[in-house]
Design a protein that fits this description.
The structure is a single chain. It contains eight helices and four strands; from the N terminus they run H-H-H-H-H-E-E-H-E-E-H-H. By secondary structure, the protein is an alpha+beta fold. The protein has a four-stranded antiparallel beta sheet, with helices on both faces. Helix content is about 60%, strand content about 10%.
């Protein structure tokens, strides 16, 4: 078994496989980090674009609708009008309208089963803001290690207080990892084939040179090795043929001189 791995053919194949695997691992890690960062940044940029600046009076309108008797329905209508800007897709990204005091579910783009089982730090921050009557304290801390991203925005209107809670499932990392692993397996299968063919192309002429050297060592100077390329191996093959020809001529000259001496000694 170890003799197989000592061959030049297997060494070149393993080196190429290691290089390809290392490159794919580095690229995969870079892609995972970059895509996750982009995903998180886009999530909070969408939130900031809608709730960060009240230049169009959107937040003021939300507070006015919250002061109405059926504030939750009014907030839902307002949020539905901005669903595209908020990135709501009703599958992995949803919004919820919660009671500002208790945090219980009132309405939203989906049912309460999609809410996290435990109240998150952002939601607790928003509830604390409602209890203090501070509608500027938004829960928007990101946690890249969590299996979700969320933001909780307190909306206080009159005697009513609500929390607009938006979340998104962030199993993106696992999905990217799965895709990268699938690509790695397929890439390894392809690289094994290509590495084997490439190393065979490189080692084949060397094996022919070895066989030619063995024939020359055995005294066979007639066979010429074919020069199949113009690279260094092709130049080496041509040089080997020239060396074999010179060696054959030299041995023929030596044999001729020996025959002359034998003839001279015979006549003497």
């Amino acid at each position: 078994m170890f003799a197989v791995f000592r061959s030049l053919h297997m060494k070149l194949t393993l080196i190429l496989l290691l290089l390809i695997t290392s490159l794919m691992a580095v690229v995969g890690a870079f892609l995972t980090t970059s895509i996750s960062s982009f995903y998180i940044d886009t999530f909070y940029e969408q939130i900031n674009a809608v709730f960060g600046d009240d230049s169009d009076g959107y937040i003021s309108t939300l507070r006015a609708r919250a002061a109405e008797p059926d504030g939750a329905s009014g907030l839902k209508e307002m949020l539905e009008s901005r669903a595209g800007s908020l990135g709501i897709d009703y599958r992995t990204r949803n919004y919820f309208i919660l009671d500002g005091q208790s945090g219980t579910y009132l309405d939203g783009s989906t049912d309460a089963s999609s809410l996290p089982r435990e109240q998150t730090a952002n939601l607790l921050t928003a509830r604390n803001a409602v209890s203090q009557g501070d509608s500027t304290q938004v829960g928007d801390r990101s946690d890249i290690t969590a299996d979700y991203m969320d933001v909780a925005i307190p909306i206080i209107g009159g005697d009513n207080a609500y929390i607009i809670y938006k979340d998104t499932v962030t199993d993106l990392n696992s999905q990217i990892f799965l895709i990268i692993m699938q690509a790695l397996v397929i890439g390894l299968l392809i690289s094994v084939l290509l590495s084997f063919l490439l190393s065979k192309t490189m080692v084949g002429p060397i094996e022919k040179l070895t066989a030619g050297a063995e024939r020359v060592a055995a005294g066979d100077f007639d066979s010429q090795l074919p020069v199949e390329s113009t690279d260094e191996i092709g130049i080496l093959t041509g040089t080997f043929n020239e060396m074999a020809g010179v060696l054959q001529s030299t041995l023929a000259a030596v044999e001729n001189e020996r025959n002359k001496l034998d003839t001279l000694f015979l006549h003497m």
